[in-house]
Amino acid sequence: MKVLFTFNIKEEQLKRLETEFADVEFSFTKKIEEVPLDNYEVIVTYGEDISTAVLDRASSLKWIMVASAGVEKMPLDEIAEKGIIMSNVRGIHKTPMAESVLAHILSLGRALPTMREHQLKKEWNKKARQTELRGATAIILGPGAIGSEIGRLLQAFGVHTIGCNSSGDRVPNMDETIPFEKLKDVLPKGDIVISVLPSTPKTKGMLDGSYFEAMKDSALFMNFGRGDLVKESTLLHALKHDEIGHAVLDVFEKEPLPAESELWELGNVTISPHVSSHSGKYVERALEFFTVNLSKWREGDRELVNLIDLEQGY
User: Fold this and answer.
1) Which residues does residue 45 pair with via DSSP β-bridges, in sequence order?
2) What is the residue range of 57's domain?
């Protein structure tokens, strides 16, 4: 059995794989377009290098292991047509992303950016406005693995958490859960509105201007899911017309964010260059998913952890 990685792993990580799976041949490349693919049954990838041309060349491919959560840039229809199974590492981002979200909330609430500005000016100024998290209400769009972990951390600070998903079914670490149809009804309660939604046909452009009009004018809006949830023009209008208080954006409609974007210049925006999921433990955690699934695969078990519904896109 042959497995191709399209990214490198550490030497000790490879040795562990070779020890545990002595009958598997592991290969590595960063230029998949230059490698003969006929004999590879499994490809492990971050996803963006899988094209229809790659699929046409990979005649033996049965399983694509995506070492990321988002798969919206992959040719899902073609993968489904060829009967290829696909899994991802959904949940791998929950720790670094939840910590990133909390870091931004605490930083803004305790006025750390303002204090830094005063420091650069060598200015002893005690007038920075600071707030507390306790007693606040956070609305979390997409309370899955990441959203649930954000909710757990916020609840530890005394924050009331409201999860918003397609079903309205209760989920861990949410004091309440509502369906998307009721989102506008609860937005006026939210001191913090956090999106960790994936990109799907249903979520693209979902937040139009009416949602921002429904938010508190002091609300902190945070997008850590996908940038196509809201158009940049909609965000700019909400920020420039004080429909919300501040936005922390880790994802954008167009990435990298163009230098000419007005978002760079607004004082009530914090820009993070899509790095909230970064962690020195990323590959290590991805390999944990892979080894569990590779064991199942070798035993003929195709009910892999984090199987992707290719029609739904997640």
Assistant:
1) 66
2) 2-92+282-298
In the structure encoding, which two tokens stand for residue 51, read together?
């094209």
pLDDT tens per residue, range 165-187: 999 999 999 999 999 999 999 99
CB atoms within 10 A of CB 50: 25
Q: How many CA atoms are closer than 13 Å to the CA of 210, on its beta-carbon side? A: 5
Question: Does 33 lie in the same domain as 115?
Answer: no
Q: Are residues 209 and 98 in the same domain?
A: yes
* pLDDT tens digits, 51-80: 999 999 999 999 999 998 888 889 999 999
Q: Which two tokens stand for residue 114?
A: 């303002």
Per-residue tokens: 176? 């309440």
Residues 144, 204, single domain; the answer is yes
**Mean pLDDT (the chain, rounded):** 97
Across residues 200-206, what is the average pLDDT? 93
At 286, list the tokens. 């991805």
Domain annotation covers residue 57: yes
Q: 37 lies in a domain? A: yes
Q: Is 65 in the same domain as 10? A: yes
* DSSP string over the chain: -EEEESS---HHHHHHHHHHTTT-EEEE-S-GGGS--TT-SEEEE-STT--HHHHHH-TT--EEEESSS--TTS-HHHHHHTT-EEE--TTTTHHHHHHHHHHHHHHHHTTHHHHHHHHHTT-----------TT-EEEEESTTHHHHHHHHHHHHTT-EEEEEESS----TT-SEEEEGGGHHHHGGG-SEEEE-----TTTTT-S-HHHHHHS-TTPEEEE-S-GGGS-HHHHHHHHHTTSSSEEEES--SSSSPPTT-GGGG-TTEEE--S-TT--TTHHHHHHHHHHHHHHHHHTT----TTB--TTTT-
- Token output for 89: 């590492």
CB-based contact 17:54 (threshold 8 Å): no
Q: Does 310 reside within a domain?
A: no
